[in-house]
Design a protein that fits this description.
- The strands form four sheets. Strands 6-5-4-9-12-14-15 form a seven-stranded parallel sheet, sandwiched between helices. The chain has a three-stranded antiparallel sheet with strand order 1-3-2.
- The protein is elongated.
- The chain has ten helices and 15 strands.
- By secondary structure, the protein is of the alpha/beta class.
Length: 262
């Protein structure tokens, strides 16, 4: 197979999975790792991908590239629904504490289920803390839930409050559980997101809670985006819809992170 043909196949794999590894490509094409690396170098020079340890990721899914919540809502919707249901299973009907949710499509899906949450006793209640306008509006429909909306500068692309005022408010609260999303989860880089202000909010929520739970569909696994907001060890549980690759699985185990496959 000629180099051009291999590179076309690599582009196809990137479009489908978002990530490729040198080992898998060498096996697929029956060529040496050095040949694959040259192919990846040429594709990187054309802006198709970015090289990462052990392989490459699609240029469309790295760094500062960020889509609006509306654009991402229906993507991987079945996976997000399973993840949201698994997250709900961690909130028993006897729960009477406070939880926090950051902005995101999977946390929005969780908010839809929280709208129907029922406490075990008629006097029971829950507090939901969020910087997301849409999540606050959804959850506020439940009379058993008190909503604390964190203010700040509204970021249009996510509909979330960010900035120093937001961080200052988050510094004074300590919820029992924080549910956070991420644009990438990497064995070495940890949990990441493209925007620094969103990253600061996610970091404050993660580090300020008694228990941090990441809700991440499998398309984010193995990816690095611009800003790391938490190391693997700073998250207690990750809920996803497919098993991480071997490198990430081992890293999560070393960091003592519980992995829940929804």
């Amino acid at each position: 197979m000629y180099a051009e043909e291999r590179q076309q196949h690599i582009e196809g794999k990137l479009a489908e999975a978002g990530r490729v590894t040198v080992i898998d490509l060498a096996h697929t094409f029956d060529v040496s790792s050095e040949t694959v690396r040259r192919d990846l170098d040429q594709l990187e020079a054309r802006g198709v991908l970015r090289r990462v340890h052990g392989g490459a990721v699609s240029a469309a899914r790295i760094s500062r590239i960020e889509e609006s919540v509306a654009a991402r809502t229906d993507r991987n919707s079945d996976a997000k629904e399973r993840i949201a249901l698994a997250a709900m299973a961690l909130i028993p009907s006897t729960f009477t504490g406070a939880i926090s949710l950051d902005s995101g499509t999977t946390t929005n899906r969780l908010a839809l289920h929280l709208r129907d949450w029922q406490p075990a006793a008629s006097t029971g209640s829950m507090t939901v803390i969020t910087n997301s306008l849409s999540i606050a509006a959804t959850v506020s429909e439940n009379p058993h839930i008190e909503v604390q909306l964190i203010g700040g500068r509204l970021r249009g692309i996510t509909g979330a409050a960010v900035g120093s005022a937001t961080i200052s408010q988050l510094a004074n609260i300590r919820p029992d559980i924080a549910f956070v999303g991420a644009n990438g989860v990497h064995a070495e880089f940890g949990f990441s997101t493209p925007d620094p202000e969103e990253a600061a909010v996610k970091s404050a929520l993660t580090r300020g809670s008694r228990r941090a739970i990441a809700l991440v569909d499998a398309s984010k696994l193995g990816l690095e985006t611009l800003i790391s907001f938490a190391s693997l060890s700073e998250v207690d549980t990750i809920i996803t819809d497919d098993s991480p690759d071997d490198d990430l699985t081992r890293a999560l185990e070393r960091a003592d992170v519980d992995t829940v496959i929804a």
